[in-house]
Amino acid sequence: MSPILVVEDNEINAEIIVTLLESLGYPNELASDGLESVEKCAARSRDYYSLILMDIHMPRMNGYDAARKIKQELGGTAPIIAQTATHATPESIETHSAYITDYLFKPFRPDQLLALVQRYISA
User: Fold this and answer.
1) At a CB cut-off of 8 Å and minimum separation 6, what does 104 contact?
2) C-alpha distances out from residue 86 to 27, 37, 57, 59, Å
3) 11 Cβ neighbours under 8 A, 6+ residues apart
4) Is the pTM here over 0.85, yes or no?
5) Across the strands, what pairs with 105?
6) What's the Cα-to-Cα distance from 101 to each of 23, 25, 68, 91, rounded to whole Å?
7) Which member of 35, 51, 53, 72 has the greatest number of CB atoms within 10 A?
8) Nearest C-alpha neighbor of 81 from the set 22, 11, 21, 23
9) Cis bond leading into 107, ω under 30°?
């Protein structure tokens, strides 16, 4: 199974997500911000990751910019799930629809994360 790329700058959130994914048997890698996620994707094949869980508000490069680069410049094939504590508007969802597959709103329950992972990895 290809790993999930977890992009999260908050150490506690990252630990929770990584631990949950590992407990469910999903291999994963961690990037601490958007720039690191782009670098990791650039160093791998376009289809290396099965899914990318992308925090939106991060230092150095935000999640929208990172997702756009991964999809449009690097040709990444993994679905990208945006993680955000702010509620997206229909306009912002449409604006980013070319590179953001779905949204996971923080705080989320483990079953919400699991449902999204299963939806996109099994697809």
Assistant:
1) 53, 81, 82, 83, 84, 112, 113, 116
2) 28, 21, 9, 16
3) none
4) yes
5) 84
6) 24, 23, 11, 15
7) 53
8) 21
9) yes
DSSP string, the chain: -PPEEEE-S-HHHHHHHHHHHHHTT--EEEESSHHHHHHHHHTS-TT--SEEEEESS-SSS-HHHHHHIIIIIS---S-EEEEESSPPPHHHHHHTTTT--EEEESS--HHHHHHHHHHHH--
Tokens for 109, please give them.
């329950």
- Residue reference for tokens 């869980």: 53
Q: Which domains are present in the chain?
A: 4-121 (3.40.50.2300)
